[in-house]
Amino acid sequence: MADTLSDDEIESRIPDDWERDGDEIVRTYEFDSYLAGVGFAAGAGGVAQDAFHHPSITIDYGEVEVRLTSHEEGGITEKDVDLAERFDDLQ
Q1: CA-based angle 30:32:38, to the nearest 5?
Q2: Where would I find the H helices in 1-91?
Q3: Which CATH number belongs to the domain containing residue 45 in this structure?
Q4: Which superkingdom heads the taxonomic lineage of this protein's source (predicted)?
Q5: Which residues of 29-45 are buried (b: 16+ CB within 10 A; e: fewer)?
Q6: Is the residue at 1 inside a domain?
Q7: Count of the separate structural domains present in the chain
Q8: What was the pLDDT predicted at 1?
């Protein structure tokens, strides 16, 4: 089990363009088309599966919202921050 991060650790480690929403970190990625967003979500799903850490992903026209938390630990952990950074590398 990973330890949850403190409020200060979350603030200092959360990647740019991500926000904290309670026990989750959240980012909305914007795309020029629906299919571009679907493609990103598919790639993010593959990365998440490889990490065995599964986000909530909502696809809408022109945007994809990603929410990360570590349910088993009850909050935000280093696993969430690491996966957020990996998602940012996809775009």
Answers
A1: 70
A2: 7-13, 34-51, 78-90
A3: 3.30.1360.20
A4: Archaea
A5: bebeeeeebeebbeebe
A6: no
A7: 1
A8: 61
**Does a structural domain hold residue 65?**
yes
Task: Examine residue 64 and state whether it is found in any structural domain, yes or no.
Answer: yes
pLDDT attached to residue 45: 97
CB 76 within 8 A of CB 10: yes
pLDDT tens digits, the chain, 91 residues: what are they? 679 999 999 999 999 999 999 999 999 999 999 999 999 999 999 999 999 999 999 999 999 999 999 999 999 999 999 999 999 999 8
Q: Which of 63, 78, 73 is nearest to 25 (CA)?
A: 78
> For residue 20, what are the CA distances in angstroms to 34, 46, 66, 78?
26, 24, 12, 14
23 secondary structure, DSSP code: T
Give the span between the Cα atoms of 57 and 54, in whole angstroms: 9
> Would you say residue 2 lies in a domain?
no
Structure tokens at 28: 């909305």
- pTM (two decimals): 0.94
